[in-house]
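Throughout our pipeline, every protein is held as a single compact record rather than as scattered files. Such a record has a labelled line for the sequence and another for the backbone structure tokens. The remainder of this section carries one protein's record, kept here as part of the documentation:
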Amino acid sequence: MSSFWSIWITVLTLLVIVGCVFLLVVCNRNDTGIKEGESMGHSFDGIEEMNNPLPKWWNYMFYVTIVFGIIYLLLYPGLGNFKGLLGWTSANQSVTTIAESKAAFEKSEAAYGSEQGDGSFVQYDREVIQANERFGPIFDAFAKTPLEELVKNEDALKVGGRLYLQNCAQCHGSDARGGKGFPNLTDNAWLWGGELAEIKTTIMNGRNGMMMPKGGLPIEDGEINGLAEYVVSLSGRDHDAALAAKGQASFMKGCFACHGMDGSGNKMLGAPNLKDNAWLYGGSRMAIAESIQLGRSGVMPAWKDILGEEKVHVISAYVYSLSQKDESK
């Protein structure tokens, strides 16, 4: 916050407090010349106004709140850039990377105690420590359980489901069925493999999708429609056989290197299977042609430094269970 806005907020806040004190003092003064308890000479609808003071409990309440407000503003941040005598803050709001967040956490009083810390009181860090103390043993027990057994543990799957909703649903959806550019996790069409270990590796380390390279295919613009038609034919849909035959020649110019000779994909590269009718960016002829012409690139962020391996272990079991449930229907 700039110095101007810091001063502006501080002055306004203090003026409001001073104003409240002034109003209380004025309202408790009897400058009317009329004794307390006597009539003010006004009446309306049979109700006469009397010169009565404010109730003492009301006065005391206002004074207590004013004193409380002053103490609060001294202890906690609230007056512009003043950080408060306690050094309290809700979170390390200035950090921009995970590394900076960890460094700030290690310096805070919450991490090492008042003797070794820097004297700050970061509320979020305190809550993280309390959560780790409470739930850490649970995740440690889950982490020691092989994934093959964890997928049969209903309690672990419930925990994994909550972790998924907190961290994964933003991209893959609350029902895990994804959206355009975000894979459906329930259909068994896995770009990088759907085995338990492969899913965990994907979540832990992330993936940089080797998708369609923009302008990198050795084909002419006039070949795009034929190539799209051939891709449509691979998934068994109705197609123009003559146009698809021309497209097959275009496919063999370079597409097969990633998607395979038969179009079944390559999970080592994250190249999609073009035969399963599961389309990440849309399976219409127009969407396929757009992918060929403009390219596609997807990134799956790594979660090992954000959640830690113990939580990733549980989420992996949950994600695997989603596709198994879908397959059993």
In short: The chain is about 50% helix and 5% strand. The first helix runs from residue 3 to 27.
